[in-house]
Amino acid sequence: MSDWTEKYRPRSLSAIRGNNKARDQFREWAESWDDHGDAIIVYGSPGVGKTSAAHALANDMGWETVELNASDQRTASVIERFAGRAAMNATLGGSSKGESGRQLIVLDEADNIHGNYDRGGARAITKLVKEAGQPMVLIANEFYEMSRGLRNACESIEFRDVSARSIVPVLRDICRQEGIEYQSEALQRIADANSGDLRGAVNDLQAAAEGRDEITEESVATSDRDRSVGIFEFLDQVLKEESAQQALYTSYDVDETPDDLTKWVEDNMLDVYEGEEIARAYEFLANADRWLGRVRASQDYSYWRYAGDNLAAGVAAARDGTKGGWTRYGRPQFWRSKDKTGDEVARRVAESSGVSMSIARRRIVPYLSVMTHHCKPRDLTVAMAAYYEFEEKHVAHVTGSGESTNKVQSIVEDAGELRGEAMEAHSGGAFAGTPSGGSDGDAEAAGGSDSADGVESTDDPDGTDSAAEAAEVDDSASESAADGGDADEADSDDGQSGLTDFF
Amino acid sequence: MFQAIVSASTLRDALDSVSVLVDECKIRLNEDELAIRAVDPANVGMVDLTLDAAAFESYEADGGVIGVNLSRLEDIAGMANTGDLVHLELDEETRKLHIQIEGLSYTLALIDPDSIRQEPDIPDLDLPATIVVEGTHLDRGIKAADMVSDHIGLRVDEADETFHIEAEGDTDDVDLELGRDDLIDLSAGPADSLFSLDYLKDMNKAIPSDAEVTVELGEEFPVKLHYEFGEGMGHVTYMLAPRIQSD
Question: Which residues form the Proliferating cell nuclear antigen PCNA N-terminal domain (chain B) (predicted)?
């Protein structure tokens, strides 16, 4: 038996059920395409007839179609090869008759362009949409899953869920054409079970009718179709409406890991909960987090269930009664540290001080920041930049001054010089004879020690605890620098003589 | 019933000319010839190929249709040396094609012909200009155009009786002018159309450089390219829809 969703697919737009307004808009777009030449995005839940509408439209307009869907790989080159070629050329059939040679390019599941598998695909589509010489329809489930550039370049039409009232007549029609007896209640039940999904309803009808010539209420499968729950719906249930048990059941249907769910709930809970509720909810979130920590440490993902219990049932139980109203839920803000410069600063500090990056980040960098706030005092900042080999952006990061300012740039330049001098001073004359002249060695060594003085002299401005500790840090820093220098000297002493020794 | 013996080079030439447009195609096994007609997925380019029974060492068929995966078949044909003979035999029971090359036997699973894209009906075109040109000249024009642009203009100058292959890039232009002396034949008419270079490049790959290519051209109409291979017993016609003129 052939697939009924295929067999009864509407051949003309006028046969599309539900969504009359969207349908008319769609037709108007096609009829006025010669004037505007824009692509269109058709979006809505699965099974409401988006793809059918696109093909029916092409049929009505007498256009041929080229379809590219998610079963094809959709990298930039594939899209250019198929859709791109179709979009830039007339069709053979049309142009041979001397007509326009129009064809409709249907890009199904345009919101599912996979980042890696379909490398470059999303960008290629955006480019194509702007250049296309043929009408293009992009079909998507989630309008906002597509990039903003793409959305702005296209018109858009939403196909809403098809109401059970519109689904029943379709099912009745099919039954008549197939010569199947039916009870109205049975069809009603199929329609209700497939809330909004016309294709699902037709599939269920076919399944129920398989091998029978009558559909009764009993023959309709009683189980509901699995449906994934969106994160916003889930948050509403946990934070506002449902019992702890129901919230937990809902959490099973959400397509997010407990890690992410915890973040979502935590970030949005404060917008809804008040007073005591907050304290109780945090208790549960803390528990959830602890379990997530155990998952991470033990790699035993069965602990996820306890995190889930806490973040869904626990947080829902922390609520007094139910809440109403609408809340603008936000995406959690702390997905990952993107502070590359901060990481780099910590790494350089950690390397030269012989401590871990987290110590550098928490125990050293903050003090450096206070001591060299806005690059004052300047000589200290120069010394710091020289010692840790900071570049402009690092100095800017630590001091809070702008990266492109003259101040920061001159500090980095001076620091470079200082480093060069220190290197010569500690080289024991190994570089003597170079243009800069080893004869100045003494003077430069003095300069080097000056900078060390500079470091120490900075305790004075801030006489606080932090300064004291900072001084310690810097002391050890300058000591280690000195050590380094000694070591260098020792190195150059043993075995290898300097050239100057012979002059 | 289908049984044939053909030289590997003839088979390869035939397959190459089709595989530049499609990955799968239907092969019609007519009594006096083997025929392939296919349209590319974007509905822009078409190939129409016939290989006379005389091009085969031996040929027996009764008008069946088979669907093949071209890249597979090309790979197999690639296993043969130029002078080798390829034996083809269709097993009606299992719907498989048995291929034998010098002791190597390969059984190729066929594709249901109904699942392969249907070719549209193309009305007979009466194109005003006909140019007969050597494959090398066409190749030269296409290579030059490819340097500056992604589309190519084919034009006949009626007054001067010249054929132009030209391309306009963002900054650079090229124009290959072929006069009567360069062309094998020319019957001038109003003809000026723009085409995608992507397609012409691919088609050009399949055209032997020593072939005589007959170009039929109109104004904003598809172009037809005819050429022969396999000692004149294989005929290929390409048809390519024009590019949409952007303003």
Answer: 5-102
Q: What is the ipTM of this complex?
A: 0.73
* A279 and A384 part of one domain: no
pLDDT digits (tens, 9 = 90+) for A309-340: 999 999 999 998 888 888 888 877 655 556 77
Which residues, in sequence order, are bridge partners of residue A154?
A39
Predicted pLDDT of residue A338:
61
Q: Which CATH architecture has domain B2-115?
A: Box (3.70)
Residue A463 falls inside a structural domain: yes
pLDDT tier for residue A492 given thresholds of 50, 70 and 90: very low
Q: Chain B residues with CB inside 8 Å of A85's CB?
A: 40, 42, 44, 196, 198-199
Out of A85, A94, A95, the one facing B196 most closely (by C-beta) is A85
Instruction: Provide the residue range defining the domain that includes A287.
Output: 253-336
Q: Based on the fold, state whether residues A259 and A321 are members of the same structural domain.
A: yes
CA angle A187/A190/A191 to nearest 5° reads: 85
Domain ranges, ordered by start, for chain B: 2-115, 129-240
| CATH assignment of the domain containing A172 | 1.10.8
Residue A96 lies in a domain: yes
Phi-psi region of B244 (alpha: psi -120 to 50; beta: other; left: phi over 0): beta
Q: Which of B23, B24, B43 to mutate to probe the A interface, most A CBs <10 Å?
A: B43
A62 a known binding residue? no
Closest chain B residue to the Cα of A66, Cα to Cα: B42
Q: Which residues neighbour A340 within 8 Å (Cβ) at sequence distance 6 or greater?
A: none
| Mean of pLDDT over chain A | 80
Q: Do domains B2-115 and B129-240 have the same CATH topology?
A: yes
Same domain, residue pair A16 and A80: yes
Whether B242 sits inside 8 A of A90 (CB atoms) is yes
A94 is in an annotated binding site: no
CATH of the domain at A26: 3.40.50.300
- Summarize pLDDT for A23-38 with one digit per residue, the tens: 999 999 999 988 888 8
Listed residues A277, A310, A336: the one ending a domain: A336
Query: How many alpha carbons fall within 13 Å on the CB side of residue B45?
Result: 25
A32 is in an annotated binding site: no
Alpha-carbon separation of residue A226 from A195, A198, A503 (angstroms): 12, 15, 89
Whole-number pLDDT of residue A474: 46
Is A195 annotated in a binding site? The answer is no
Pairwise CB contact (< 8 Å): A66 & B244? no
The residue that leads in pLDDT, A38 or A501, is A38
Parallel, antiparallel or unpaired: strands A181-182 and A154-159? unpaired
A346 and A332 in one domain? no
Cβ neighbors of B216 (< 8 A, separation 6 or more) are B125, B127, B129, B130, B223, B224, B225, B226
- Which chain A residue shows the shortest CA-CA distance from B219? A98
Q: Are residues A89 and B120, on separate chains, in Cβ contact within 8 Å?
A: no
How many domains does one find in chain A?
4
- Give me the mean pLDDT over the A47-58 stretch: 90
